[in-house]
Design a protein that fits this description.
Shape: globular
Distance between the termini: 51 Å
Order of helices and strands: HEEEHEHEEEHHHEHEHHHEHEE
Oligomer: single chain
Helix content: 25-40%
Strand content: 15-25%
Radius of gyration: 19 Å
Number of strands: 12
Largest sheet: 6 strands, mixed
Strand order of the largest sheet: 1-2-3-6-4-5
Number of helices: 11
Structural class: alpha+beta
Length: 346
């Protein structure tokens, strides 16, 4: 009988794709002095999803990189998820991915090379779906598995979507459910059934390509994708250092099945606490909120959906168009004039 490989055994995954917390990143990157360059349009200094460099009046390149340990056991599915996650930052900026480089860490002494081949094939399937060419990459031997992509996209310099430019009195729309960090924790503990595992795996492997193409037809004020800092963490990045606030309606936020009960049972990734601790002072009356609400809204996501702000006059039309393309989207809150404050209702 063929041995079943549990890929998550060969990782350092801690329930949140092993990302460094926002506090660590701020401390390590906050004082870096950027190279002076007029063509540099967007860089790391404002928590944007990718950097943008102007090539001409009509063309700029968008660049990002992401890689992490396995969040699922199936190698092919892991490759798909990691690739979709890497490509997502390009879509969140309004760009079109065109080339990629792979990044691989692999314990060759522990796993057969066929596992690495399956990971790479999974990633390649998503690159083909995105119309993005793989140019090459870099690999090293390591004690744990890690995989991802450095991706370059193209965008018109006047059509860049930033994450911190929302306007007051707009709707916030989210294009995927949240809770996959909690469910991935449950999976690792053997507390999730096969149907739930399949659903969440399929969602994480789904590109944000269709969502990005739909919203490109509308005057989106601000856009990001929901990943390691959780929905609330990325929502706050949208209003940080602006004159705008956000109200999130917890009851309107789409959740994966069983997320609520799992959160109440404390099946919470390790990175959640860091996300909460870093942002809780910016949540109005945050200390009075039920812990399970905070744990869900700050749940680190892997390959989450797009989160964007847009005029209420077109939000229904956008959601209908996304629904026609089998993208489940929802209005989960709105922007306010309560500068820099995140309000959570339930």
């Amino acid at each position: 009988m063929e041995e079943i490989i549990r890929l998550t055994q060969y990782s350092e995954y801690s329930g949140c794709a092993a990302k460094l917390g926002p506090c660590v990143l701020t401390e390590s990157l906050g004082d870096l002095t950027q190279t002076s360059c007029e063509a540099l349009l967007v860089d790391f200094r404002h928590s944007e999803d990718a950097g943008v460099y102007k090539i001409s009046d009509d063309v700029a390149i968008v660049q990002t990189v992401d890689f992490f340990p396995p969040v699922v056991d199936d190698p092919y599915s892991f490759g798909q998820i990691a690739a979709a996650n890497s490509l997502s930052d390009i879509y969140a900026m309004g760009g079109r991915p065109v080339t990629a480089l792979s990044i691989v860490c692999f314990p060759l002494q522990k796993l057969d090379v066929s596992v690495l081949k399956a990971i790479a094939e999974g990633g390649m399937s998503k690159l083909r779906e995105a119309g993005c060419a793989l140019l090459g990459g870099h690999s090293i031997k390591d004690d744990s598995v890690k995989y991802g992509l450095a991706v370059t996209g193209l965008i018109h310099p006047s059509k860049i979507l930033l994450n911190n430019t929302p306007k007051p009195d707009e709707h916030l729309i989210l294009t995927k459910p949240i809770g996959n960090g909690i469910i991935n924790t449950a999976i690792r503990q053997g507390k999730a059934d096969d149907d739930l595992i399949e659903m969440v795996t399929r969602s994480m492997a789904t590109l944000n390509k269709i969502s990005a193409e739909v919203i490109a037809d509308y005057p989106i004020s601000a856009c990001t994708d929901v990943t390691g800092f959780g929905l609330a963490g990325h929502a706050f990045e949208m209003i940080q250092d602006t004159g705008v606030g956000i109200v999130l309606d917890f009851n309107a936020v789409p959740l994966y099945p069983h997320t609520l009960e799992m959160a109440k049972r404390k099946l919470v990734p390790g990175g959640t606490k860091g996300n909460i601790d870093y942002r809780i002072d910016h949540v109005q009356d945050g200390a009075d909120l039920p812990q399970w609400i905070l744990d869900i809204l700050f749940d680190p996501q892997t390959s989450g959906g797009l989160l964007f702000s847009v005029s209420p006059s077109v939000s229904t039309q956008i959601i209908e168009r996304l629904s026609e393309k089998d993208v489940t989207a929802a209005v989960i809150g709105h922007t306010t004039r309560n500068a820099g404050k995140l309000v959570i209702t339930y």
